[in-house]
Amino acid sequence: WWLKNGLPESIAGRSGTDFIFESDSNKIRRRGNRTIEYRDYYILFYDLSQLVFEIQFESEDPRSTVKLINSYAKPIPVYHKLYGQQIVSYAAQFLGTKIQDEIVSHSLQVSGAEIISPIGNKSFGVTIYKNLNNTNVSKIDEIKPGDVLWVKNGKYVSHKGLMGAKSVTLEGPDNVYTAIIYEYDPKKEKFKVIESDSTGHVKKESFKIGEFKSGRIRVFRPVGRDYVEWD
Predict the structure, then answer these.
(1) pLDDT digits (tens, 9 = 90+) for 189-202
(2) Is the pTM above the cut of 0.85?
(3) Average confidence (pLDDT) over 76-96
(4) Which string of DSSP letters, residue by residue, matches the chain?
């Protein structure tokens, strides 16, 4: 796997779902007509923790000379850089149109900012808010425009329309719904978001936390590559 600049088979299948990775390579000529190759791997997991390891091998005999020379785990950093307004402005230009990609992933990857790419549908940055069935709630920062609303297996009570209250299920790949928050009212605990529906139509929507009957809610803060020292 190291000759293909890939990962061990035991974890390669999780790439893009549980983590993303990058690698750097370098060659050094040694006496005796030997070429030593060094390869650094940087694996970023969906909670933004990291595993970094380095291997070396001789180009002339890569299989029997390969060895691990350094490895360490990096904890989650404690600082962040905001890209909120840039993300909101980019997503807002698609309101009333249809797009092929999901609006959150599209905005984070194409908005022009050096933002860490989504990791599967499990991570869109640093988790700043968690809510499980409106019973177990934790928050580490205020919710701001440009944050990402993430809801899994979400059901809520809608009071819109002439039919009165009705139960609505939030849909998405693997039962995960995502949207970009453009405003949050802490008094009403109300999210105002930009979303793309199943047909790709981009529109505004709003949810009150108290209207959720069940599901896991998270709010992610997109962060730059410098957050994990990938700049």
Answers:
(1) 999 999 999 899 99
(2) no
(3) 81
(4) -GGGT---HHHHTTBTTTEEEEEEEEEEEETTTEEEEEEEEEEEETTS-EEEEEEEEETTBHHHH-EEEEEEEEPPPS-----HHHHHHHHHTTTTSB-SS-HHHHHHHHSSS-BPPPBTTTBSSEEEEEEETTTEEEESS---TT-EEEEEEEEEEE--STT-SEEEE---GGGEEEEEEEEEETTTTEEEEEEE-TT-BEEEEEEEGGGEEEEEEEEEE--BGGGGT--
